[in-house]
Amino acid sequence: MFLNKGPLALIKLLTKDGILQKPTKCPHCASASVGPLKYCKQWNGYVYRCSKRACHCRIWPHGFHPIFYHSKGKGSDLNMQASVLFCATVGIPQVSTHLLFDVDAKVVARIYNNLDAARAKFVHRQEKAIAYGGWCDVEADEVDLGKGFLDDTTDGQKKGVTTAWEQWGALVERGRPESLRLFRLNPAATNTRAPGPGPICKRVTWEKLHYTKVYDLKLPDGPLLVREMLKTLMSA
After folding, report:
1. Has residue 37 been placed in a domain?
2. Contact 166, 146 (CB under 8 A)
3. Which residues have a Cβ under 8 Å from the Cβ of 82 and sit 6 or more positions away?
4. Which residues in 173-198 are b (16+ Cβ under 10 Å) and which e?
């Protein structure tokens, strides 16, 4: 679907689907608008151009894109990148995509990594708008994703504690999957034979209440207050 498309038809298709967007301002000068999409014989492709006379920079339709990138290498054009992105979104493994298109593995890996980074940025941005409140059921759980080994011969490291864990927690409101929030945990290191770092625990430390005496003081106002302040500073 993407490999057989012409340059202009592919750009229009990706723009219609919202994958590509026309820049509202020039990304180079950030002050002027850009003109319509036109063919540039010098660059051998369709580009936008800044309307500012002092700038007049050309911008590729997939320039400054969070996933796509511009490259003149063989097998890394926009058609191939769009095809690899389609495979990544439908869940095809990275190794299978590399064999399917018979393309360099670095091209496939770059698109997959850029997609993961774009998803992470989107999630972090959306998490700031998530709010929990009212009478609702909230579920929380944790998962262990892996472990690594530590050197117990270093200074400050407890002897026998040689395993560090990668643990993440999740919080979601029941019946509202868009409220899912993920957060990275910092579990304590364990010994090698431990099955895991253990569940999330919240340790509460109770302290004795401290009482403070409340004083009711009447301070002067206006010029008298300024005079008293200056007198105190001069005498100090």
Report:
1. no
2. yes
3. 2, 10, 14, 19, 68
4. beeeeebeeeeeeebebbeeeeeebe
Beta strands in the chain (DSSP E): 38-40, 45-49, 58-59, 138-149, 163-173, 176-184
Domain of residue 156: give its range.
138-184
In three-state secondary structure terms, 65 is coil
Q: Within a domain: residue 73?
A: no
- Residue 109: the pLDDT is 92
List 38's β-bridge partners, or say none.
Answer: 47
pLDDT in tens, 106-148: 889 999 999 999 988 888 888 777 777 777 788 888 888 888 8
If one counts the domains in the chain, the total is 1
Strand order in the sheet with 45-49: 38-40, 45-49, 58-59
Using an 8 Å Cβ cutoff, are 85 and 8 in contact? no
* Cβ atoms 48, 62 nearer than 8 A: no
Residue 149 lies in a domain: yes
E strand intervals along 24-137: 38-40, 45-49, 58-59
| Residue 57 placed within a domain | no
Q: Using CA atoms, how far apart are residues 5 and 16, in angstroms rounded to an integer?
A: 14
CA distances in angstroms from 146 to 105, 169, 197, listed in the order given: 26, 14, 11
Number of H helices, E strands in the chain: 5, 6
